[in-house]
Write a structure and sequence with these properties.
The protein is mainly beta. It contains no helices and 5 strands. It is about 0% helix and about 45% strand.
């Protein structure tokens, strides 16, 4: 399960001082390129939805919508988007994603 808020947040979107996490069996709901060069990957674990982000520095292949993946990256609380509907009304993300396994 995603269990948002279970881990200490990184202090920035690069994962500084954060906890590296791996979350298995996530279904990719949608992907969307962002204005800052990141790619938003919305996932669902069967109960919760979460936004995860691929950054240009990691050069990862964007997963296919509908696929099931395991994501590794840093737990990050993006407070700027905590109440946004597109962010599922939670600050929690995996940002950046450092590994995608299919």
């Amino acid at each position: 399960a995603i269990r948002r808020g279970r881990f200490k947040s990184a202090t920035d979107k690069n994962g500084a001082n954060g906890i590296l996490v791996t979350v298995k069996d996530l279904r990719v709901v949608y992907t969307k390129a962002s204005h800052d060069g990141d790619v938003h990957v919305a996932v669902n674990d069967g109960k919760e939805y979460m936004i995860c982000e691929i950054t240009p520095q990691h050069k990862l292949q964007v997963p296919t919508v509908g696929s099931t993946v395991t994501l590794t990256g840093f737990a990050f609380c993006d407070k700027a988007h905590a109440k946004a509907a597109w962010h599922y009304r939670s600050c929690w993300e995996i940002h950046p994603i450092t590994k995608i396994q299919k």
